[in-house]
Amino acid sequence: MLLNIINKLINIVWRDPGALTTQRALLKQVEIEKLRHLAEKPVSNFLHQHEIEHRQYGDIRSVYRGYGLDYEESRPYQTGDEMRFMNWRLSARSNELFMKVFREERRPSVFILVDRRQAMRFGSQSRLKVTQATRISAYLAFLARQQNSPISGVILNETAEWIPEASGETGVYNLLNQANSACPPIQDYESEVSLNHTLRLLLNMLVRGSIVYLISDFHDLNSSSQPLLLQLSEEHKLMAINIVDDAEKELPQTSSISIYNPERNEDIYLEAKNNNVSLQYRQYAAKHFSDIQNILSQFDINYTEMNTDLDRIDQQISLS
Question: Among the four 81, 138, 161, 182, which has the fewest Cβ within 10 Å?
Fold first, then answer.
């Protein structure tokens, strides 16, 4: 019986009215401005290993050939070609005119997934997991604007809310306005959109070479996620940020804990000072988070675990 309860604890919500719903925006304007200031500090240009298909010019190798910096090949001269790209050496050797073709540089899009589902509406200390996720998404959006990268994304509530691609301040606030909105109660826990369903949609939606941030607690990540993550990682740069609260890893030292299970609309009570209960919970939690990291890390996905209480998020995440 105890293990059955422990197996549910990581994925359910502690009994706290504030954890279930908030009636106002998650971040105040003053905190948004602080995040903007953090993002405006000098940052190194990001490294990118995938060829990109985005049309916006930048400094990352793309799939397009034209007038870039990286020499690709030579081809026969065509009427209208610019003479400054003539391959004079090859033309002299072959007695025919050849042009140099270069690989063009483009700017990849930044796509941000923000999980605001029921399991994210929990926090035992200074802020909810969903609030920390919003802080991170805002910081990343401001960083992307600094790099002149277009921004798009998806917000996971009871349904998925897709954010169209846009650049500059428009791109930032298209995402932030949705991510920062109040969290109304989710009416039907079972009807929540799944992470796997969203990942499957991304396979056909993303432009090749995108930088993709997954901000979630990954509570429904499983073996079925692996082929989806593999396909995504082959064409995009994936960054996973796991939002974690201290109470998810170890039970607080109180005499009794009431935990709400939204799946069955019931409370679960635990004697937290019971050494056997605390030990089994800690062991299960350690395995749970280790399993998440193993699934995400095996596909060369950059994995970061972010505590809800961490203020200086800029010290752990970037566009690189």
Answer: 182
Number of structural domains (the chain) is 2
pLDDT tens-digit map of 142-199: 999 998 899 999 999 989 999 999 999 999 999 999 999 998 776 666 778 999 999 9
Q: Nearest-CA neighbor of 304 among 251, 222, 238, 246?
A: 238
Least Cα distance to 132 among 36, 197, 35, 9 occurs for: 35
Report residue 46's pLDDT band, with 50, 70 and 90 as the boundaries: very low
Cβ neighbours of residue 306 closer than 8 Å, sequence gap 6 or more: 132, 136, 241, 242, 243, 244, 313, 316, 317
The 3-state secondary structure of 194-207, one letter per residue: CHHHHHHHHHHHCC
d(CA 209, CA 228): 16
pLDDT at 119: 87
Q: How far separated are the first and last CA of the chain, in Å rounded?
A: 46
